[in-house]
Amino acid sequence: FLGTDACCVPVLSGQEASVHPHNVARGSFAPTPGAEGLFEPAPAPKLSRTPGHQPRPRPSPGQHTREVLAEYGMAEAEVDRLLES
């Protein structure tokens, strides 16, 4: 497209985009917790009063089971019975 009046850019993979100088300067990607060398999109747009959250580690399976069941009104004894079975 050299010498033409066209607006085009290369399509980058996620890994390429995370290390592109423009995205690095803008802070567009943040390291993925628990996955060294991987990046994921950072919150955008970056607002002063509500800046968003940086990526957090993913929960392990069952990590919040008790809390969720309690929110749905299940008694602790009932949750214990479910988890024992």
Could you outline the blueprint of secondary structure elements for this entry?
Layout: H1 14-19, H2 21-26, E1 29-31, E2 39-41, H3 65-71, H4 76-84
Antiparallel strand pairs: 1-2
Whole-number radius of gyration? 22 Å
Structural class: mainly alpha
Q: What's the total number of strands?
A: 2
| Global shape | elongated
Strand content: 5-15%
Helix-strand pattern, N to C?
A: HHEEHH
Question: Could you estimate the helical fraction of the residues in percent?
Answer: 25-40%
Please, how many helices?
4
pLDDT < 50 runs, ≥5 residues: none
- Sequence of strands across the biggest β-sheet: 1-2
Question: Largest sheet, if any?
Answer: 2 strands, antiparallel
End-to-end Cα distance: 65 Å
Q: What is the mean pLDDT? A: 89
Report on this model:
- There is one protein chain.
- The mean pLDDT is 89.
- A hairpin with a 7-residue loop joins strand 1 and strand 2.
- This protein is mainly alpha-helical and 85 residues long.
- 33% of the residues lie in helices and 7% in strands.
Can you give keywords for this protein?
single chain; 85 residues; mainly alpha; elongated; 33% helix; 7% strand; 4 helices; two-stranded antiparallel ribbon
